[in-house]
Amino acid sequence: MSVKYVPVQWNVFKFLYDFALLVIIMGFLWVFVHIIPDQLTYDPSITPQIQNMRAFGSCAFFLLTAILVIGPLARIDRRFLPLLYNRRHLGVLTCFVAFSHASFVIRWYFVFSPTDRYVALFGTNTAYNQLLGFPFESFGIFALLCLIILATTSHDFWLKFLTPRIWKSLHYLIYPAYAAVVAHIGLGTLQDQPVSIFGFLVVLCVALVVGLHLMARRCELETTDSSALHRVDAYWHALFPVQEIEEGYARVARIDTGDRIAVFLHNGKLSAISNACAHQNGPLGEGKIIDCFVTCPWHGFQYDVTNGRSPAPFTEKIATYQIRVREGIVEVDERANPPGTPVEPLNVEKEDSV
Amino acid sequence: MVAETLVFLIQVWLGVGALVAGAFLLIGIGQVDEDAHGAFAFRPLLIPGILVIWPLVIWRWWVVSTGRDINRHIKAAPRRSHGIVTILLMIILVGTLLISFAIHQERSINIAPVKLDMS
Amino acid sequence: MTKKELFFIGYLPVPQKLWLLFIMTFLAFFAAFIFSAWAIGLSQNDPGDGRFRFDLGRQTVSGVLETLPYPMIHVTEGSSAIDAGETLMLSGAGKFGVEPHASNLSSTSISATGIILNRGTLRMLQISNPRRNLSVVENQQSISDPLDLGRWRLVGEICDGKCYAGAMRPGRGIAHKACAELCIEGGVPPVFVTTKPVQTHEYLLIGNADGGPISDTLLEKVGIYVSLEGRIEQRGSIAVFLADEGSLEVFP
Predict the structure, then answer these.
(1) Which of A206, A276, C116, C120 could bridge to A281 as Cys pair (CB 3.0-4.6 Å)?
(2) Is A267 left (phi over 0), alpha (psi -120 to 50) or beta?
């Protein structure tokens, strides 16, 4: 973006999104920490600090599950895309909740002792050679570190400064973080109470994440693959019939180099651009043309379809492609033009008759 | 001893990060990103990030300010690896859960003590 | 295509139909989270009846101090809540033991002031400032020799005696493992909690076969169900399990 950076670019939708998130998180913690102790008749009761650890820990796990569920959900049904739009706020809140969990643990299990609390955290249980009784805290520390990296580098500045490639690679840490959290729970608290409602919910959450990711992958392969897709010669690929493209929208194809190419139909003319938005690599081909500009469905970044450039004052550029139409099939040159290269849109009627 | 060293290294890491944060937010940020000119309110937000990944910050600062950053916009995200990452994650998640249920000890057992000698 | 008409961008007004979906999604997430908190919260296990007995007030007793494998006092002169003849394990405040102060006073008669922690028959005296609250008394007495109860194989869990006795609820298991190890390393007496009582003892103070504190091998298995062999001695009212670390097996 080429406007001055601000801490958060607020709009009404983000306010409502964050408000809804806070209601959900506060609701969970309030029930767990304030309602439940009165319902349990144990005498003496569970230590409040331990109650807090459990409340914040399980809350962070469910939030992390929600984060991982939103992505595939939006790919399966595009109406869920708005949930993705402000996901970084969900990530930052999750980091806070996980951090609170860690701090309750450290300020209860690792204090009041002759050893420094952080030395105790790393040095007390070092039996890494056993599965039962494994220092499961280390998985939690790793996951928290990942969440901290993700939360602290979530501002748009980082995306531009680090480049989308490094930034997105860094943000793949969400996957190892989730795996680490599941290991943290599985080797930790589940060992004390495996056949429990929490154990059941953990299995359910993992099944949901696994299932939705597999479903989304299948959907994506179905929408990007076309029966017409094949390599024509050294550089050119046949993609799909012209008729499959709707005016104002695109059809996406993934050629065998791995690149995803979006071919748009605008005012009866075809233009091909890279499917990846320069902002966060959102799927441009799932966007639509608004006021002559392709609009990304993730965060609304816009590009001129004929040259891959964002309208002034923005400076984002994406790659464009040379295309041609033969016997009603769109063909593309796999050699992408440098980002921002103008390409004359292809008049469908005229080309088709050749 | 290992734990003490680890804690010391973390402190050093954060200390260096604080120095880098100071230098970068006062000097560097204007060199690498023109959008940051005159924008100050968002800078404190970057401090925690710099504390954590300062070596990456120094490297990018150097790359951008020495003009080695020509291919920036071609560097698209690694979307291709997304499928592999997904499959790998699925295997690890399911494996982890299977292991944790397999090693679990039944906690409501009643094994009687055995006297080994009859003295 | 209706789906495409429902195109959303954060900075543009949201289509009417999407609002309904947002509200439904919010309600679904909200219900799932509240239900989870409720269900997980209510399904937490009872941490047991262990607790600090602040209600009984500070207790001052006299007795003979024994420091190995871990400090305990054989009470000769009781108080309002502690009878003469009872034996209590001793711990300091937090995750501290009463060592090193106590090690100089081994086998001497002392006066001890502290708060009782108890869970069933397991009783421990927390002495917050051993330097001030553990002192030698004039009238020196001796203790009777330990009674050998023979060699046994037991199945159970090594816990730190203090958290298990109610300093933390729950104070056992894997989630609490590191805390328990930290307590034991700090000098808090560890106990072996058997799955079935040995004669009448459900809890035994555990030490190494040589009579000293437990080794790192045993410490690694804190919080896990293990099978252990060793000699059991009756010392005062406490049973002491002197375990062979070589016989240690993780219970399947």
Answers:
(1) A276
(2) left
